[in-house]
Amino acid sequence: MSGKFSNDDETIRLNTELTYGTWRKQKGWNPLLVTKAYDCYFEDNHGKKYLDFSSQLMCSNLGHNNRRIKESIMQQLDRFEYTQPSYATEIRAKVADELSSVLPPNLSKYFFASSGTEANEAAIKTIRMFFAKERKFKIISSYNSYHGSTMGSVTLTGDFRRRLVDPFYSSQGIMHSPPPYCYRCPLGLKYPECGIACANYLEYAIKNEGNVGGVFIEPVTGTNGVVVPPDGYLETIRKITKENDVLLAADEVMSGWGRTGEWFGVDNWKVEPDILTTAKGITGAYLPLSLMATDRKISEYFNDNYFAHGHTYEAHPVPLAAAYAAIREYKERGLIKNSKELGRILKRRLEEIKERHRSVGDVRSIGLFGAVELVKDREKKTPFNDYLDKIEGKGLTVEKVAKDAMGRGVYVSTWVSHFIIAPPLIINDEELDEGLRVIDESLKIADMEV
User: Fold this and answer.
1) Judgement on whether residues 99 and 184 belong to the same structural domain of the protein
2) DSSP labels for 82-99?
């Protein structure tokens, strides 16, 4: 580089003064300057190396600087960079063919967009278009969910980010139900004595609300704590939605692409949704791409009914080229199996970490997808911080732990009271062990605040 961009301080200044930092107050934003990334690691402008223990935002499933994906992108660029989505392309056909071999087998038609938010917007509209004649426009999602930041998807979202914008527009037609958060059961019950009341509540809601067309779930809750549902939860919801002629949509933006030890989260429970949305790992985050997949009854409906949705960049050939290479990498390198096998080690080690640290209230994991939830009182399950602290920009205990881990060369993504462990699926035993060793050490910071 030359000129002003050879000065690291000036580069950071231009980032913070001219661009927005997301999900935060802008004052005080002092971002790390990343200059290099490879395999399971990235480096800053001082040459310090970090183990990427959360795959950035749980999306860099294939690690960094993957040659096959880069070459696939360049090959497509050499042919042509873009064509409008009403035209056919070879790469679109190739990706669709690959998808048919990894998605739940009932899903037979695909819509490509650029982000998880856009895929969920497409799903919301698809549900409402499908039931337009019956006027079944209502959709139910979980209070502990996150589905995106655009108007439809943030209304669908159940966490506090919805509340920040709710007063400014109508959220009519979206309702929320209790999540399968057994550690903090919203109904005050205990599993399995509860009889999976959070799932059965849906039937009551569907019958009493009326005009319910869809239920949205995260098979494994993502940002809000890697909440793994108890056995029977997804199966019960699938049964209820079928019996009440309601479409089931699975948001696999974060839980898809081997993250849970199966191709998709729903595969762990052999559940086939009517709609599946995904993004992030579909390209390994090399380029933005997302997917909405639908079953045959939905696709056949639109044979004779207008599909009123689309984007300029729908089925963009260059991100599709990245996706094609990514899917081949997952398959040929056995990464789904690696996630499942190392996931057993992760689960055991997290339980050991919980036993050693009084600040750890709960640990949850499935495949290479885990969360450590911090509390200042284990018996009462009292968190160190709440979402108001996050909004106000107050120092969070979980951020202190993450900062200490960064100082030791391990990056983890944090939220209000937990951090997420979701390394690239290419990680090996030694790297997993190193990341967990550092976390074990850094949690002493939280222990001192109990």
Assistant:
1) yes
2) ---TTS--HHHHHHHHHH
- Are 365 and 284 part of one and the same domain? no
Same domain, 109 and 188: yes
* Under 8 Å between Cβ of 323 and 92: no
**pTM beyond 0.90, yes or no:** yes
Which pLDDT score, from 0 to 100, does residue 172 have?
75
Tell me which amino acid residue 290 is: S
Domain boundary among 277, 302, 332: 332
Tell me how far apart the alpha carbons of residues 4 and 17 are, in angstroms, rounded to a whole number.
Answer: 15
- pLDDT of residue 249 exceeding 90, the answer is yes
Q: Which of 291, 285, 145, 341 is nearest to 226 (CA)?
A: 145
Q: One-letter amino acid identity for 203? A: E
Q: How far apart are CA 95 and CA 290, in angstroms?
A: 12
pLDDT in tens, 308-325: 999 999 999 999 999 999
Q: Which of 148-162, 243-257, 415-429 has the lowest mean pLDDT?
A: 148-162
Name the pairing type of β-strands 418-421 and 370-374: antiparallel
CB distance 315 to 89 below 8 Å: yes
* pLDDT tens by residue, 369-397: 999 999 999 999 999 999 999 989 899 99
Residues 112 and 61 both lie in one domain: no
Mean per-residue pLDDT for 5-9?
85
The encoded tokens of residue 432 equal 């997993």
- What pLDDT, on the 0 to 100 scale, is given for residue 3? 65
Strands (E) located in 279-425? 290-295, 360-365, 370-374, 410-411, 413-414, 418-421
- Can you tell me the distance from the alpha carbon of 156 to that of 142, in angstroms, rounded to the nearest whole number? 8
Q: Is residue 21 part of a domain?
A: no
- Give the domain range for residue 106: 67-332
Does 1 reside within a domain?
no
Tens digits of residue pLDDT in 23-74: 899 999 999 999 999 999 999 999 999 999 999 999 999 999 999 999 999 9
CA–CA dist 285, 425 (Å, integer): 13
Find the CATH number of the domain harbouring 381.
Answer: 3.90.1150.10
Q: Do 322 and 341 reside in the same domain of the chain?
A: no
Co-location of 353 and 216 in the same domain: no
Residues 6+ apart with CB under 8 A from 217: 141, 142, 145, 234, 237, 248, 249, 250, 251, 273
Domain count, the chain: 2
Average pLDDT estimate for 192-198: 96
Both structure tokens of 66: 């993957």
Q: Which DSSP helix (H) or strand (E) runs through 35?
A: strand 34-38
